[in-house]
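Title: Request for sanity check on Gp11 prediction

Description:
We are preparing a figure and want to confirm that the structure record we downloaded matches what your pipeline produces today. Could someone re-run it with the sequence below and paste the raw structure tokens into this thread? We only need the token string, no images.
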Amino acid sequence: MTVNITIEQAQELLDSMGFEAPDFIIESFITIANGIDDCLDASNYSENTARLIKLYAVVLMLSSADVRKTTSEHSPSGASRSYQYFDDGRKQLANLLSNLDTAGCTDALPISKPLSIVQFDVFRG
């Protein structure tokens, strides 16, 4: 059972998160995500789980391509625009995808894994 996702579904998910991307880029990443259909079918995921896996994979691939959201705009000629990039939500979304995709169907997709920041201090004395 192949689950199709649409540009509108991906756009709606991005919009709900406050991010935007052009339709042609979303469509290209949907095509890439469709390449995991055989794995999803073989893993016997429910239709809803397969849909979420593909949608989250598309959004994570888009986030790897520097999807951004406009956080503020100013004008009457003091023109200014501020952006926030996707890093703030990638880790949670990647964890959710990992929990849904227990068969690893998305492992071969071009999704940059979010980096964790490790801090350590060195004391001398």
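Thanks, this matches our download. Confidence is low (pLDDT under 50) at residues 115-120.
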